[in-house]
């Protein structure tokens, strides 16, 4: 697979690269960010998401904990009631941030958890114990689902599990097995997904609207439109390109160095994210959009706030600006409102965003009586019936200067 840093960037996939980086930063900081990439088949959605696995930073967990317990905040059944001294005696270890995939052949037990058959059949000490599934094992990491629209159509039970995991931040998962007590586990995991809405069974928002709404951001993957970019893609994936180990950029050590640069930036961005807040005037603007345009989901404006802060950070700014908010609008609303409403909203923001939409919130005192928008165009004209003849018609006498 082509390393993440060498994947071709162009206008059509720029939003996906931004979303991937923002989600990794937010996940590392302890707050999930669920993202969904839509687009035509073969445009590289899955390639970009899977390549990001190589730039994930390390996390610290309690040594040997399959649930990836944070030593500062243990959550699994085995460690959550332990004292700090007991955890220190067990020790800690660093592992790469988890990146696991849910396939279309997965069962509920594989995804959520089931009985550990190896413990049940142990000759010396047989006992019934739970084996956590993919989602509990991905705690503090990422779960990837390819062709999620098909999964939502064919596996409603797994879809229900994802709804619970993505419903809150952090989410939770419940593991149930006959004869064993029910186990409810906190899960802090970001869900990534890819799909082609033009193929059967159709767009995710039409198949399972609740699941579609759980995704904070959705972007449409566009096709490359540059001959140079396409030529580079062909070169990278040619037979000679894959076998030419003498080329500097294919050296494993060089790839590792480039991946380390991403990891260092992600850690730095996550530290900045934990200390950065959205200015009040931008927060008020987002709230105004929600009310004025009758948006249904509060998750939409929460994602808009979270995304604006993250976008400002990965672009090298410590404070979000107007453009960070407007950049988020199509990403967080594309799957939540119809296309015509989104176009009208974007046109209004573009036309009025600077003068009347956003900046006048800064330093403006709120009025209790301010319930409706002031008309953009002032009605200063007078009816014709109220105007005199001299105001309507200029005669020769009125146009000729007076003689002195």
UniProtKB/TrEMBL annotation:
* Coiled coil regions in record: none
Entries under InterPro entries matching the protein: AAA+_ATPase, CHLI-like, ChlI/MoxR_AAA_lid, P-loop_NTPase
The AAA+ ATPase domain, residue ranges:
31-225
SUPFAM superfamilies from the UniProt entry: P-loop containing nucleoside triphosphate hydrolases
Name the residues that span the membrane: none
Q: Which Gene3D superfamilies match?
A: Magnesium chelatase subunit I, C-Terminal domain, P-loop containing nucleotide triphosphate hydrolases
Q: Which SMART domains match?
A: AAA
Q: Which Pfam families match?
A: AAA_lid_2 (PF17863)
Q: What is this protein called?
A: Magnesium chelatase subunit I
């Amino acid at each position: 697979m082509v390393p993440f840093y060498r994947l071709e960037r162009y206008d059509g996939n720029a939003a996906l690269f931004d979303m991937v980086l923002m989600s990794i930063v937010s996940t590392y900081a302890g707050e999930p960010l669920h993202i969904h990439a839509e687009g035509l088949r073969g445009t590289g959605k899955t390639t970009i998401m899977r390549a990001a696995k190589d730039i994930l930073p390390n996390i610290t967990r309690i040594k040997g904990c399959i649930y990836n317990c944070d030593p500062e905040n243990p959550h699994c059944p085995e460690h959550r009631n332990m004292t700090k001294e007991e955890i220190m005696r067990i020790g800690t270890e660093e592992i790469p941030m988890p990146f696991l995939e849910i396939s279309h052949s997965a069962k509920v037990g594989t995804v959520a958890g089931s009985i550990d058959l190896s413990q049940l059949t142990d000759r010396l000490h047989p006992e019934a114990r739970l084996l956590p599934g993919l989602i509990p094992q991905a705690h503090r990491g990422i779960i990837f689902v390819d062709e999620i629209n098909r999964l939502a159509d064919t596996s409603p039970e797994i879809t229900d599990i994802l709804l619970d995991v993505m419903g809150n931040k952090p989410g939770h998962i419940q593991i149930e097995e006959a004869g064993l007590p029910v186990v409810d586990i906190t899960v802090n995991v970001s869900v990534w997904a890819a799909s082609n809405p033009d193929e059967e069974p159709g767009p995710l928002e039409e198949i399972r609207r609740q699941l579609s709404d759980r995704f904070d951001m959705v972007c449409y993957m566009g096709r490359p439109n540059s001959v140079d970019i396409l030529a580079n893609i062909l070169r990278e994936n040619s037979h000679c390109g894959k076998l030419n180990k003498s080329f500097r950029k294919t050296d494993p050590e060089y790839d590792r160095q480039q991946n380390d640069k991403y990891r260092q930036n992600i850690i730095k961005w996550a530290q900045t994210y934990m200390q950065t807040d959205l200015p009040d005037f931008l927060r008020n603007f987002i709230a105004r959009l929600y009310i004025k345009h009758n948006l249904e989901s509060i998750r939409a404006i929460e994602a808009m706030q979270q995304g604006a802060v993250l976008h400002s950070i990965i672009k090298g700014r410590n404070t979000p600006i107007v453009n960070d908010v407007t950049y988020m609008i199509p990403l967080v609303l594309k799957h939540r409102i119809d296309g015509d409403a989104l176009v009208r909203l974007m046109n209004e923001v573009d036309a009025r965003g600077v003068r009347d939409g956003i900046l006048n919130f800064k330093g403006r005192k709120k009025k209790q009586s301010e319930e409706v928008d002031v008309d953009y165009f002032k009605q200063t004209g007078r009816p014709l019936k109220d105007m005199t003849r001299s105001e309507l018609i200029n005669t020769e006498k009125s146009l000729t200067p007076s003689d002195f």
